[in-house]
Amino acid sequence: MKKVTKIGVLTSGGDSPGMNAAIRAVVRTGIYHQMEVFGIMRGYQGMIENDIIPMHSRSVANIIQRGGTILKTARSKQFMEPEGRKIAYENLKKHEIDGLVIIGGDGSFRGAQKFSNEFDIPCIGLPGTIDKDIAGTDFTIGFDTAVNTAIEAIDKIRDTADAHDRMFIIEVMGRDAGYIALHSGIATGAEHILIPETKTDIELVVESLIEKERRKKLVNMIVVAEGDEIGGANELSAVLKERIPMLDTRVCILGHIQRGGAPSCLDRVIASRLGYAAVEALIEGKHNQMIGVMNNKLHYTPLDKAVKAKQKVNAEWLKIVKILAS
Ligand code: F6P
């Protein structure tokens, strides 16, 4: 097994709070081990365009508390093609980069897996997405911050909802996953939580809201993930306004506010642990793995498995939502 001496780090896909903390950990752990570390700008696109810069300890000073990513991020269409990956490989060779750390979501890992199959560059994936839709880890970098942003907003909305006796439909992010909706909904005492992982029975929602209206419970918070099959907050609001016109209903779409902001303590700590572990894994020859955290311990999932499986929603959590929202 060849010794890894020069590593590249990149962020790819949707950004998430804590990515900077992970970059910092990769750079400083690499330097601690006398490696040369390079930052690859704008994800795989920067690899193709040879936008690759040397990183030093001071390059990552004062970033642990910042949202976004100093390396910027992108979704590269070119990297999906074999020709794009070949150009990327040639650019890595120019810098003699012999190991990669990819911080991103499952799309980014799919790219890494293809790349490591085609070329002799070991890759380590770190789960960085607010959506938490990756198997093999209890947390993804950014999820905790995003959920806390959502609950802060939903708490504020409840104040005004309560003042006016209104129902609010709040749309949170999650194109394919309902974790932000599920966690933020439970944490704010939402009356209904609609997620893509479960079939939404609109009749049940309507019945339950009519029953609540009969007993003069007019303040209702419905949290819907953007990827729910109902279509999001506006679509749900149109149905509910028609079926239950006596409820005064408003919509709030939280949107990209959930992707920014200073990372929470949990995200900073997880990002630091994972960034450190990524470099250690490259040194120890644990190649082509995604590193996550399960039961508070580092957990290694081969990249090809990480791209296939999604996290499963715990059925008990759904039961909790029903019982507590009366
Ligand atoms: O980061 C994940 C995610 O937030 C999804 O929940 C959302 O659908 C998507 O990114 C939107 O990303 P963009 O606006 O960058 O296309």
Explain what the structure shows.
The protein is an alpha/beta fold. It folds into two domains: 6-142 and 263-308, Rossmann fold, CATH 3.40.50.450; 143-259, Phosphofructokinase domain (Rossmann fold, 3-Layer(aba) Sandwich), CATH 3.40.50.460. The protein is 41% helix and 18% strand. β7 (192-194), α7 and β8 form a beta-alpha-beta unit. α1 (19-32) runs parallel beside α9 (265-284) and α5 (143-164) crosses α6 (179-187). The termini are far apart. The mean pLDDT is 96. It binds 6-O-phosphono-beta-D-fructofuranose. 6-O-phosphono-beta-D-fructofuranose binds next to loops.
Number of strands: 11
**Strand numbers in spatial order across the main sheet:** 3-2-1-4-5-10-11
What is the third-level CATH name, the topology of the largest domain? Rossmann fold
Q: Uncertain spans, ≥5 residues at pLDDT below 50? A: none
How much β-strand is present in the residues?
15-25%
Structural class by helix and strand composition = alpha/beta
Task: Write a concise keyword list for the protein shown above.
326 residues, Rossmann fold, 7-stranded mixed β-sheet, elongated, 4-stranded parallel β-sheet, alpha/beta, binds 6-O-phosphono-beta-D-fructofuranose, 41% helix
